[in-house]
Write a structure and sequence with these properties.
This protein is of the alpha/beta class and 395 residues long. It has three domains: 2-40 and 170-241 and 343-394, FAD/NAD(P)-binding domain (3-Layer(bba) Sandwich), CATH 3.50.50; 43-60 and 74-80 and 159-165 and 242-328, no CATH class; 89-156, no CATH class. The protein contains eleven helices and 19 strands.
Length: 395
């Protein structure tokens, strides 16, 4: 059996890894000049930062297992991702936020997050802090966030450890790609996929055509329209809402202990963390989520406004404004956004996103149900897509 994989992010690489391990011949095409997709680790301030996906949480079993299998050590960050101190609005304690989310998350909810919080008996400051946290983390406005995020996202609140891969999370992608050897071709965007019941013809790169019995399509739904499918895909494959987010890293003149603070009003949070030696790293990271937050911080014009907001939020930090890194994804042509959002008006989790179409199967965090938006979901989706093909081959 021969399979073409489109996309060398975590999903595509996971699918290719499972298929190759089962004796399937693989050819993998990636549009970027690197593997990893939205997982991208780069040098900064004498260390490594994550321009994309960053935090590995305790429930990310697939990510943890992949790092262990590939021999990649983890670094404990010390950052309490799930228990951020809210600032910049009505005084609210972290304990109040955690208790309220636990209560709300234990009951089913219909409608949008914003409406549920408006109907709740919570103090306005607590409700606003909860909405800010979800809008930041989901990178999407609360007036169209499905209220189910209160149940699904409740596990991301609390005092638990977080990790990254030593040397960068994209080492998982690079190690998976290394195991596939010359089958991985970067700087080769796929422009056309022609398919019949038992054949797929893919045009990639400079017009080169490749033929296989099946294909894994592991690109975000937001860019599926950049590929010409013949025959066309069923309606609804691109009907996914994507959040918008940006990250900002600023060097510190004096490193500080791990911390986590959220600006409720401006919809961003920031953190400091430990390095592999257990000592504080000399930078602060910040993440802004939702289109409204990016507009208010004028991210499109550069880091200036955000740096002012960060300095006001964290006057305790000695920011080195000569060493700054701003990372955005809306301007990346291979994704055009951050990650899929649990929209109330365009729900995720539909079978139409992950179900096969002829010899085509689909992977990507947007197909991972409750694991969407995560490295965990991307890896799980790739393994699921590979198993779909393997089961078809057995039949």
């Amino acid at each position: 059996m021969r399979v073409i994989v489109v996309g060398a992010g975590f999903a595509g690489l996971a699918a290719a890894d499972v298929l190759a391990s089962s004796g399937v011949e693989i050819e993998l095409f990636e549009a970027r000049d690197r593997v990893g997709g939205r997982v991208w680790s780069v040098p900064f301030a004498g260390s490594v930062v994550e321009r994309g996906a960053e935090f590995i949480l305790p429930h990310d079993r697939t990510v943890l297992a992949a790092a262990e299998r590939l021999g990649l050590p983890l670094v404990r960050k010390g950052t309490l991702y799930g228990n951020r101190e809210p600032r910049g609005a009505a005084p609210v304690s972290k304990a109040e936020v955690l208790a309220a989310v636990e209560r709300l998350g234990s009951a089913p909810h219909d409608g949008t997050l914003a409406n549920v919080l408006r109907r709740s008996a919570l103090e306005p400051g607590v409700a606003d802090a909860i909405q800010a946290r979800f809008e930041v983390s989901c990178a999407y406005p609360g007036d169209d966030l499905d209220a189910a995020v209160l149940s699904e996202g409740a596990g991301a609140f609390g005092d638990f450890d977080t990790w990254t891969v030593e040397g960068g999370n994209d080492r998982i992608a690079r190690e998976l790609a290394a195991g596939l050897g010359e089958a991985v071709q970067c700087s080769a965007p796929v422009s056309r996929v022609a398919w019949r019941d038992d054949e797929v013809r893919v045009v990639a790169g400079g017009g080169r055509e490749s033929v296989a019995e099946a294909a894994v399509i592991a690109v975000p739904a937001s860019v599926l329209d950049a590929i010409s499918f013949d025959p066309p895909l069923p309606a609804g494959r691109t009907a996914v809402r994507y959040g918008q987010a940006a990250k900002l890293f600023v060097a510190l003149r004096t490193p500080v202990a791990p911390s986590q603070v959220m600006s409720v009003d401006e919809r961003f949070w920031c953190w400091t963390q430990l390095g592999g030696d257990g000592e504080p790293l000399p930078f602060v990271g910040a993440f802004a989520g939702s289109p409204g937050a990016l507009a208010a911080l004028d991210v499109a014009a550069g880091p200036g406004r955000w740096l002012e907001a960060l300095a006001a939020l964290r006057p305790d930090l000695e920011l080195d404004l000569d060493r700054v890194l701003l990372s955005t994804w809306a301007d990346d042509p291979w994704v055009r956004g951050a990650y899929s959002a649990a929209s109330a008006s365009v729900p995720l989790g539909r079978a139409g996103l992950s179900g096969p179409v002829g010899p085509l199967v689909f992977a990507g965090e947007h197909t991972a149900g409750g694991w969407h938006g995560l490295m965990e979901g991307a890896l799980r989706s790739g393994a699921r897509a590979a198993q779909q093909l393997l089961q078809t081959a057995v039949r």
